[in-house]
Amino acid sequence: MATIYSGIHLKLKSAKTPWEDKLKLARFAWISHQCFLPNKEQVLVDWVSRALTGYYSKKLQFGDEILEGLWIYLDDILHSKKLQKLIEKGKIITLHATIAQIINDRIEEHSSEGRLNASPSNLATVLSCCHGILTSPAFALIYSSKWELLVDLLCRLSVLLCSRLKPTEALRSTQLFDVLLLAFDLYLVTQRQQCNRCRVFLQVCSPLLQPFLLLRQRLCSRCWTGEDVAAVRQHLSKEVCQRIQTALQSGLFHTDLLNSYRQELLQDNRSQEKTASSSKDLVAPVETMLSKLTDTSLFGLQLHSAVVAGSVPLLYRLSLEAYCREGNHLLCFHIFARFLGTLGFPTPLDHGTGQEPADWNPGLLALDQLLNSILGSDVYNVAVDKIRCGGVQFALYCRVAVMLLSHPRQEAPAWFRCLRTLILLNHLIVEPNLDDLVSLAWVDADISDPRVRRAQESLLCTLFETYTKLRQLPRLFQEVLAIISRPAADELRRPVLWVGLTEKLHECLLKLPSGQALDIWDLMLNCLEAFIPDLTGNVDTALKALAVSTLLNAVLFNMKSLDDKTPVPIITRTQRLMDKTMRAVVTPLFRVVKDPSGKDSSPWALRAESSVLILRSTWLELDHMLRLNCSKYVSPGDAEAEVWSLGSGLPREGWNDALSRHFLQLLAIQEMKSVMMRPGSRTEAQEMSLRSAAVSVVQSGKDAVKNAGAQAWDGEISSIDDETYAVAHWHLVTSNIALLLPHLPEPEIAHLADVVTANLLLREAAEQDQDSENQVSIPAMCRSLLRSSLLPEMPPLHHGVLLRLMEGVSDLLPDTRFNLPMCLLSDDVDASQEADNQQSSVSESLGSQPMSPQRSSLLNIPNVLLVKSPSTHTFSKTQLDHLLWVLDLLGGLRLDSLPCYDHLRCFVLLASLVTALKPKPEKANASKCLQALSRSYSLLAVLQTGTSRNAVFKLAHAGDILEKVTASLFPAGSRLASCAEYPAWPEFLDAVQRFLTVSIQTIVERKQSMRLNLEQFIAFLSNAWLSSARSKKWRPATEQLLITALSALSRVVIQAPLQPDKHTGNSLHSLLTQLAGLLGPVLQSHSDRDGRLEQNLTVFGITALLEIELCLREEEEGGADREDGSVVHERGSGGTQSLKHADLYQRTCFQVLRRLPSFPDDPESLQKQLDFLRIYSSTSELCSGCDNETGIPSVLSALKALLAAPRVTQQFIHSLEIHLVELLHCFIDRCTQQQFYLIVKFIAQGLEVTNLWKGQHQDVVSSLNLTALLLKCPLSGDVEKALWFIAPQIIMALTVLCKEAALDQAAGFRITVLSLETLAILVQQGEGILSNPHHVTLAFNALLCVPLDHFQLDEYGSIFRAIQEVLFAIVQSQTKVLFNAAPTFFKCFNRLVLSVMHKGRQKCVGDKGVTKISEVVLECAHLVERMCTHIASNAEKFAMFSSFAVAEYVNELQKVTLNTDVKRHLTVGIYHLLDLVTESDLRFLNTLLQTGVREVFKELYNDYTHYHKSKKQGEEKYTA
Q1: Which of 503, 607, 626 lies closest to 548, judged by CA?
Q2: If phi over 0 gives left and psi between -120 and 50 gives alpha, with beta otherwise, what is residue 639?
Q3: Phi, then psi, of 1410 in degrees rounded to 5
């Protein structure tokens, strides 16, 4: 057959054969094994290559379909597995180099915008062929061997991708990106192999630089959409940008080109010509690069500025990464200077005549990045530039600053950032133009954009910090005052300060010497004093005075206050300034305002009134503060009396300016404080003045507050206007509410309660406040007041808010006002009577003494509580949402502290609500209704734990109340029957259970008719059960509610601390018998019908039933023993009647054990299961040691499976620790020594290291947890001896586990932590028991093998705490070990110290800031300090080795720079170790330490002597 097809190659060469037949023959020859051709694959590759070459060289002619077929055929060959296998076997197959040129040409055709000359061949096929060539090393030689072709390919692919990255077109294919990345990889490999770096530079500059930069700009600026393919969005575009940077880095800024850059930028022209003529180095590389960068032929005029602005920072950063080393900083600066010229900024000498860029934003962004690169790389050294370089850098930066200030662009954040970076470089750069900077960037800047405001705030904060460090802050404020004193650009001056700037001012003023703060004060006084003569009728001067007044207020309230330690000259000068403020400013300003010409409502008069009020209020507040804090301060003369006399001359009505009204209220509050601080009792006139001032404060903003809504205020007085006045007023009222409330009459208190309630009900405002930062609103302040502990301490306001919220609930219940006594809901109750009711006790209000009609009407409440057939209501979704919100607010009012009167109101209202609320059939409505019932019962539970919990039971029988509140839950046609499957149902059952539990506990504690009330409630529940049992339809909701109620009742009765008298004992026995007779059938029926157990409910009820039966049997055994005089039998022993529901208990135990490992992550629910298992396991009749299904081995296996569950965390286990320990202790109490040995063996098997080798990590985790729990059990006798007999083996197993887990950090972290925690418990519990010190020293081997360097911070903290606990346990409990193992102990301890120093070192960020240290590292440093304290307390054991620990610390301290907080903790700990160092140890350290380290130690020891040793000696002097 082979001979049949041997002539195919002749037909392929023949001109007579049609091209269609040639293609068919070629395809057949490639895929057929029957076709024989010598070197067939090479022949076919050559044929298709010659065909394509001939077509594109015009030597061959055929149709487009044939051309397309040839490209597809070539693509199939390049991607065929057959060809790949042949090449892998070593067969040599080559491809003509002309194919590479053809592919490049086709890509170029498709990259043109119009594609007029593009071939019809499919681009995807051409790219696929290129992909096949680049992925095959054998074929890729056609590009790598001829580097120009590869460069051309990369250039054309980049241009093609740029043309495809149009904003209007989505990228739906990754093919072009894949081919480009392959070309990049091949190019980078080939580039590294080039020896001539000048050639590489020129080739990168000439064809590649512009396409690369354009492509990068398109990728970085593109707004990706969902239509773009995800792979491109997520990583391919980033990989292309990374390859571009790599190619530019190695091509333009190679190390071999450093001399070329130096010759161009650092030498003069003559030396440059000589060097260029005699050297082979590249000539003018920067000029070559910039010529291509500024060429607009490829970019176009529209894109040119954006591409250059985005590329210059990248190129400069790459140059810094390559050349910014010691000695090259001047070169890097000159590169910056050359790059700066490409951004198109006007020079400062143009004076506005030069051409400015059309769009400043790209250039400013580029300049910002350039300056940040200079700052981050330390290119600019002030001293070196001035001494060695003649200030060339400083001069250029000054020109940049002048250019920025000459052409301000306050709308661009980058403009502010550039100025900030210049200040960080050297403040002298902007010093000559500081006035322009303050004016343009601060005082006169009108900025509303939050982004720009943040940039402006960052600039001004840097300005504050810089001038504070230079101790020239008064100089800065002098410029600020000079700018303010200029004529304003418009009528409204902008606020000088805002929140962020005020915080920074506060921080800087605290760091400033007191004298300089007083200088700033004096400057402002002089400025205000200069304004006063020209103030009358001058609006501009009034605005200036107001701006300086608000600035002075901020300075005085944020500077350091005086105290008794302040030097006397500072106090004296402060007194003079206080006197000057009053005599030279406040008084003259007041006279201007008081003048008849100033008593109109003209703008200048309003501004002047605001200024005098601000200064007067500030002076008073500051004077009070100084007198309180500094006993040496004396208020100047009669200045305070003069201030108050000024107040009498100012009108209190007609203040139209919001700022004036606000400070008038503040003055009224200050007047109240002044009156209340006077010694002695107050007169009637003073009381009248207090009431008048309080009322005026509240009434002045009453109308504004009602209409404020959710308006926000930033807290600055300069921003108070008509819009923010209401918020500022309410902030003033709530800040002084405790001061105002005792002096307010009832209408004002009602107004405050109305405002609080109305704003609490604004749910939309609560959502908006989550988004506002550093701003307050009235709803936010009302919610803060609700959450505070202050509101319950103000009974009138608390009472008013409670009443209005209760009215919001009662409005939803139409019949509530008819059921409740009118006196409880009427609003016309006398305030004094109501206060008397609040303060009087229940016994007084309900005693046998004659009562008023209002008070006697309270006795009608039992009629409300005894309604047998209440009316029900259904609510809409909106009503339910409103109800849930109001109930949440009621929960925040702390109902457990209500007085009797309010307690009764709230209880009756909530009882009516739970009685009347009826869900609709819809699931959403029913779910919300269940939530409302849950919160109502929760609030009832809170009420019944309060101080007035007995009040309701004195108005009605306790049994009637319980029946009333739960009556609506148990009818045969229960309205809750359809709700049992909803997610809110378990929460509802828990709320009912909590309410019944606290109510029944109150009944038991009162000891008044307890048996009658509880029997009445049991009878009610029994009737409900009988009604449900007679119903043919099974209602699980009714049964679950019955189980909940009976379980709660049973647990309270069992745990009740009853007296052991005969009557009480009979009561207990009777109640328990009735409960057992009712709870047993209910549970049995529920289990039989449902066939499953609700983990949160049924197990709790069965536990209660089991406890009841055991309690009854123990009582019977006790009675029999008292009659017979015999000894009481053990629990569950024979001789008594068996448990009635033993089968139910065993079935329950079986299901609990089966479901225990997969139980949900709910600690409360799991606690109930563990309580059942504990009681079940303590009964020998139920749980025996040999039962395979429910015996002790089965329980222990289920417990181990629970602890081995992957979802069970250590926090979850810690929350169950008490219950787990009690369960294990129950096992141990009941087992023999042989059984205990089997238990320990069962646990110890999981500690074997072979489990780790098998991958059974969770088994090891569960065994470690069981071991720790077992060690915490209180053991005694033979069981204790057996445990401590195998303790050495456990220690050895834990050590081996630590070593093995250290090899697998990913899976071994938890095992390591648990092993160390178990080891710490073992060492601590073994105090006095572990007699062999060698067994304890094995623990050190475990500590030394644990790594500390490769964990994340959270994991590191856990490991660190575990190691520290082991060391602490050894120090505290195994003191004998320390005599011989102190060196090993210090070796482990030094590892901790060094690791903390490594984690706590300072880390620099881009703007020379310091990252915030982690709380984990601070906690570890604190633990080191604590350990050092314990070491110092055992001086006789550690004195010899403390000097070595100090030496280790000092050696490491010399290498790293610690965070301040970390260093503080470690230093205090080392001070304790230095207490153990003797004089000989000091000489030893000074001799041992190297020179640099010795200096660090001397500094440390000097601080120790100054701060610690002297204090310790002083304490010892007075210590007995």
Answers
A1: 607
A2: alpha
A3: -125, 130
Burial string for 240-271 (b: 16+ CB within 10 Å, else e) reads bbebbbebbbbbbbbeebbebbbbbbeeeeee
Residue 1449 main-chain phi, psi, to 5 deg: -65, -45
Q: What is the pLDDT of residues 1389-1430, one digit of tens each?
A: 889 999 998 888 765 333 334 445 678 888 999 999 999 888
What is the Cα–Cα distance from 156 to 105, expressed in whole angstroms? 9
Which residues sit opposite 776 in a β-bridge? 713
The two three-digit tokens of residue 879, written as one number? 């009503």
For 416, residues 6+ apart whose C-beta sits below 8 A from its C-beta are 410, 441, 452, 455, 456, 458, 459
Q: Phi first, then psi: what are they for 423, rounded to 5°?
A: -65, -40
Which residues, other chains included, contact 1245 with Cβ-Cβ below 8 Å and sequence gap of 6+?
A: 1263
**In angstroms, what CA-CA distances link 544 with 184, 501, 713?**
64, 20, 23
Which 8-state DSSP code applies to residue 2?
Answer: G
DSSP 145-161: SSHHHHHHHHHHHHHHH
CA distances from 557 to 524, 575, 626 (A): 14, 16, 11
Q: How confident is the model at residue 9 (pLDDT cuts 50, 70, 90)?
A: low
Q: How far is CA 1245 from CA 958, 1203, 1223, 1225, in A?
A: 57, 15, 21, 20
The per-residue b/e assignment along 1337-1368, b for 16 or more CB within 10 angstroms, e otherwise, is bbbbbbbebbebeebeeebbbbbbbbbbbbbb
Please state the rounded mean pLDDT for residues 396-422.
94
- Rg over alpha carbons for the chain, rounded to the nearest Å, is 44
Of 344, 349, 320, 347, which is closest to residue 333 (Cα–Cα)?
Answer: 320
Interatomic CA distance for residues 660 and 1089, integer angstroms: 76
Quickly count: other Cβ atoms within 10 Å of residue 560's Cβ. 14
Q: At what angle do helices 81-88 and 40-56 cross, to 10 degrees?
A: 120
For 776, list phi and psi in degrees, rounded to 5.
Answer: -120, 155
Structure tokens at 270: 């003559």
pLDDT at position 1125, please?
46
Give the single-character DSSP code of 585.
I
Kindly state the tokens that stand for 989.
Answer: 């059952």
CA 471 to chain centre: 37
Cα angle for residues 1111, 1112, 1114 (degrees, 5° grid): 65
497 neighbors 718 (Cβ within 8 angstroms): yes
3-state class (DSSP) for residue 1377: helix
955: phi then psi, degrees, rounded to nearest 5:
-100, -20
Which stretches within 266-359 are classed as H helix? 269-278, 285-293, 301-323, 329-340
451-465, 527-541, 870-884: which range is least confident on average? 870-884
Distance CA(459)–CA(421), nearest Å, equals 8
Q: Whole-angstrom Cα distance, residue 1036 to residue 1021?
A: 15
Q: What is the pTM of this model?
A: 0.78
- Provide the 10 A C-beta neighbour count for residue 82: 11
Which 3 state secondary structure label does DSSP give 884?
helix
| Average pLDDT of span 446-460 | 92
Q: Distance (Å, rounded) from C-alpha 1213 to C-alpha 1203?
A: 8
Q: Which two tokens stand for residue 85?
A: 């296998």
d(CA 721, CA 610): 12
Which tokens in the block code for residue 1172? 């059942």
What is the CB neighbour count within 10 angstroms for residue 680? 5
Task: Work out the pLDDT band at 77, boundaries 50, 70, 90.
Answer: confident
Other beta carbons within 10 angstroms of residue 189's beta carbon come to 11
| Residues 1477-1494: tens digit of each pLDDT | 888 888 888 888 887 788
How much is the pLDDT for 1008?
A: 80
Q: How far apart are CA 820 and CA 916, in angstroms?
A: 14
Structure tokens at 303: 């894109």
Tell how strand 776-777 and strand 712-713 pair up. antiparallel
Contact 1429, 1472 (CB under 8 A): yes
